[in-house]
Amino acid sequence: MKRLASFIYGVPLAAIIAGCPAGLSNPEDFIDGGAVGKDAETILAESCGTLGCHDATPLAQAGLDLVSPGVEARVVEVNSTCEARILVVAGDPDGSYLLDKVVNAPMICGLPMPIVGTLTPDEVEVLRQWIIDLGEPGSGAPDGG
């Protein structure tokens, strides 16, 4: 009886294992670096909005909440607390201090963001494009007035 059970379960299992290729011929079609489908707010919340950093508590670093809805209103055309720079300059990623913190640019104040790990190049590109899009007419970005 044990031989029959081994045969009944073993043969299909062996067929499944033998039928699985060792690799994909087009892995780039399946690997997206985790950023595809994530928007900038999600990336900021998951990477920088952790407890003790830029979460939704009164003790958030620099008083900056990157978790709650409406992140744009808290970062666009807002001064950084440790540099005389704007966190996000709508339409200008290279002039945005938040992006400098994320890419660990030279001469940033304090620690890079996130404090643990780094964002993937795809995630950085999502943030860069978000900042560019904020400068587009009708983007919903605050107008400072």
Along the chain, the helix and strand elements come as HHHHH
Low-confidence stretches: 10-22, 26-30, 141-145
Average pLDDT taken over every residue: 79
Instruction: Determine the structural class based on helices, strands and strand pairing.
Output: mainly alpha
The CA-CA distance between the termini, in Å, is 82 Å
Portion of residues in helices?
A: 25-40%
Proportion of beta-strand residues? under 5%
Number of strands: 0
The major beta sheet can be summarized as: none
In short:
The protein is mainly alpha-helical and 145 residues long. The protein has helices at 2-19, 40-48, 71-75, 97-102, 121-134. It has a domain at 37-134.
Textual characterization of the structure:
The protein is an all-alpha fold. It has a domain at 37-134. Helix content is 36%, strand content 0%. The chain has helices at residues 2-19, 40-48, 71-75, 97-102, 121-134. The longest helix has 18 residues, at 2-19. The N and C termini lie far apart (82 Å). The model is unreliable at 10-22, 26-30 and 141-145 (pLDDT under 50).
